[in-house]
Design a protein that fits this description.
Elements lengths: L1 E5 L8 H13 L4 E6 L1 H10 L7 E5 L10 H7 L4 H11 L3 E6 L3 H12 L9 E3 L1 E3 L5 E5 L9 H19 L5 E6 L9 H11 L5 E7 L10 E3 L2 H28 L2 H20 L8 E4 L4 E4 L6 H16 L2 H18 L1
Helix pairs in contact: 1-10, 3-5, 4-5, 6-7, 6-11, 8-9
């Protein structure tokens, strides 16, 4: 199984990318990794960390796409960038099953759409990050920003793709699908959610449990949260910001208490560590771009080696579960049901 890493995407490239690759080939049986980017620099990092095996290939690419460039222009013009070369390599052979990048989100999504291409019948691919929930489980959010203007039929397909992801990645039986709205009542929401609700309610291949409110996103009562990219991105950023704010407020209040605060922290240190572990996004990999022909994962720009390894394992598990093949089957089955109705 060959998996490609964009070696110069993200804030910590190439060191953390290469370290994550080394961990991956050492721990995952049958996996080899191709890293795209400046060959000399990647070789130096491999040498620094004592790797001399044959499971990591380097594909030279001297250019880098930055976050402040136009994604479409960069993908078309920077043909020797680490990201474009990664996509071209992914398309070059069926041996390559997926790719991972911590680089520009816009460029990754644009490249996946233009170069990898959509699964037949998919209206719009969608970004699908996984969030930890209060029941020590996982909840998938789809779409988290790829389609800020969506149609009801897009959301219906998001539900199918998200459900298949949860089945394949976590073995979730009959994933519970909730439609993000401003209330749980059937009539709540705007024109988009009203129409999407009617479509989801009548679909046979998903377990639609109705409208849900954003405040219940991490309750553990839902496995897949369906929404347009504008709402999803807002929900995701609010979640991230809320966690950061809570951490800062806790630290400030503990410091204000002086010695008492420090003693209290020592007594609760284990609890704080457990909270941090439960809410740690690095252990669930990155956000899969669902609806394209091969596995594409976009991870956080500040990803470290642990995160990169989690992403490689994510691709590894999804490929072993044949998620894309099953997704194609369910999308085609739903389309067939629609035609019959």
């Amino acid at each position: 199984m060959k998996i490609i890493l964009d070696g110069f995407g993200g804030d910590n490239a190439p060191v953390e990318i290469v370290k994550g690759a080394i961990t991956s080939v050492n721990l995952l049986p049958g996996v080899t990794v191709a890293i795209t980017g400046d060959e000399d620099k990647i070789k130096q990092v491999l040498s620094d960390y004592g790797y001399a095996g044959d499971k990591i290939e380097i594909i030279d690419a001297k250019e880098v796409i930055s976050n402040n460039e136009s994604p479409t222009v960069a993908i078309r013009q920077k043909k020797n960038s680490s990201l474009v070369v990664a996509f071209d390599t992914l398309n070059s052979s069926d041996e390559y099953v997926g790719m991972i990048s911590a680089g520009s989100t816009g460029a990754v999504l644009t490249g996946a759409t233009l170069k990898v291409g959509r699964i037949k019948g998919v209206f719009r691919p969608a970004v699908a990050p996984v969030l930890p929930n209060l029941k020590n489980g996982k909840t998938l959010l789809i779409d988290a920003g790829a389609n800020v203007d969506s149609k009801p039929e897009y959301l219906a397909q998001f539900a199918i793709m998200g459900s298949e992801y949860m089945k394949s990645m976590y073995g979730t039986v009959n994933p519970r699908v909730g439609l993000v709205s401003v209330g749980t009542e059937d009539h709540k929401g705007n024109a988009l959610t009203h129409e999407a609700f009617e479509l989801l309610k009548n679909m046979k291949n998903i377990n639609f449990v109705g409208n849900m409110e954003a405040r219940d996103a991490l309750s553990g009562e839902y496995d897949v949260l369906v929404c347009d990219g504008f709402v999803g991105n807002t929900l995701l950023k609010s979640y991230e910001g809320g966690i950061d704010t809570l951490n800062k407020v806790l630290k400030e209040e503990i410091l204000k208490l002086g010695l008492k605060g420090k003693l209290g922290y020592l007594l609760l240190k284990k609890a704080f560590k457990n909270v941090k572990r439960r809410m740690n996004y690095t252990t669930v990999g990155g956000a899969a771009f669902l609806g394209v022909k091969k596995l594409v994962v976009k991870t956080h720009g500040s990803s470290n080696a642990e995160t990169i390894y989690s992403c490689v394992k994510q691709v590894y598990d999804l490929e072993n579960a044949k998620m894309i093949d099953k997704m194609k089957e369910n999308l085609a089955l739903e389309e067939s049901d629609d035609k019959q109705n």
